[in-house]
């Protein structure tokens, strides 16, 4: 008869012993391999695992607000960019209100799914809450404040939040008579940056035919060659302030005003867009121009994985036509 929590598994004619840790990860029970019963190391290994399993979890009754407090004082949180901290803060405060007394060790995937599904009318916010909660619980699970991350396995909403702009809307914005719309469209498209980074671009950041960008979210510093179309627009633009995106009085254009202008422009043409969509247009355009993923990432400042993710939006017919033409040329 085997000791408690030990099971025998036979594989390729041999018997192996495994200890049931009592933990579950991604819905699967976690087992730890044990030495053979006749091995002198068995007793010590079994006793250690049994003691760990039977030890009362020190944080079974830790409420979510306490875990959030620990997380916000951690090195992991301190390493986040200011923009990420600001965004996380919004959703962490919301989690505190939604789960004010819930012990972190008792939160289930079902609990988080109910919260997520309950935000169906705001899919973007639901995704933001899920991402933040997942980061929080992953941090907690790594430090054994809880046994697993209850957000794992919950699929985010495909809400089209960052869909590329329709080409006719892009063309219209680039040729717009509205100076702000035209400049914003050129900067967003031809640098592939986020709206916050575009609005922070200063005339002093331009040296020759390059512009220097420090991404607020990632902290990355990029030097991007000016596309000739962007260069022409900037050369013709009147300098009214320190920043490129300034009004006639030289005052900076804030994100809310810029977003409203661009979205209203697109809405008047029958399209619903977000400024970030032009970042996706930029990535797709670079890839369709034959740029490698690494070259594209050097412009957008994204990870190679994210560029690959954005690459899914490429025009299948264009890619297919290009492939056949190359094939024909080699025949």
> Which regions are unreliable across 5 or more consecutive residues at pLDDT < 50?
none
Biggest β-sheet: count, sense, barrel?
3 strands, antiparallel
CATH first level of the largest domain: Mainly Alpha
- N-to-C SSE series? EEEHHHHHHHHHEEEHHHHHH
Estimate the helix proportion, in percent: 40-55%
- End-to-end separation: 70 Å
CATH architecture of the largest domain, please?
Answer: Orthogonal Bundle
Supply Rg: 27 Å
> What characteristic shape results from the CA principal axes?
elongated
Q: What is the topology, as strand order, of the major beta sheet? A: 1-2-3
Structural class: mainly alpha
Mean of all residue-level pLDDT scores: 87
Question: Count of helices?
Answer: 15
β-strand number = 6
What is the count of structural domains?
3
CATH topology (level 3) name of the largest domain:
hpI Integrase, Chain A
Task: Describe the structure in your own words.
The structure is a single chain. With 331 residues, this protein is mainly alpha-helical. It has 3 domains: 6-54, no CATH class; 64-142, DNA polymerase, domain 1 (Orthogonal Bundle); 167-322, Intergrase catalytic core (hpI Integrase, Chain A), CATH 1.10.443.10. Helices cover 49% and strands 11% of the residues. It has 15 helices and 6 strands. It has helices spanning 42-54, 64-72, 75-78, 82-98, 109-117, 123-142, 167-174, 179-191, 195-199, 228-236, 255-268, 277-288, 293-300, 304-310, 316-330, and strands spanning 6-11, 14-25, 28-34, 206-207, 210-214, 221-225. Strands 1-2-3 form a 3-stranded antiparallel β-sheet, with helices on one face. The chain has a 3-stranded antiparallel β-sheet with strand order 4-5-6, with no helix packed on it. Helix 5 runs antiparallel to helix 6 (123-142), helix 8 packs across helix 12 and helix 12 (277-288) packs antiparallel against helix 13. The longest helix has 20 residues, at 123-142. The relative contact order is 0.08. The mean pLDDT is 87.
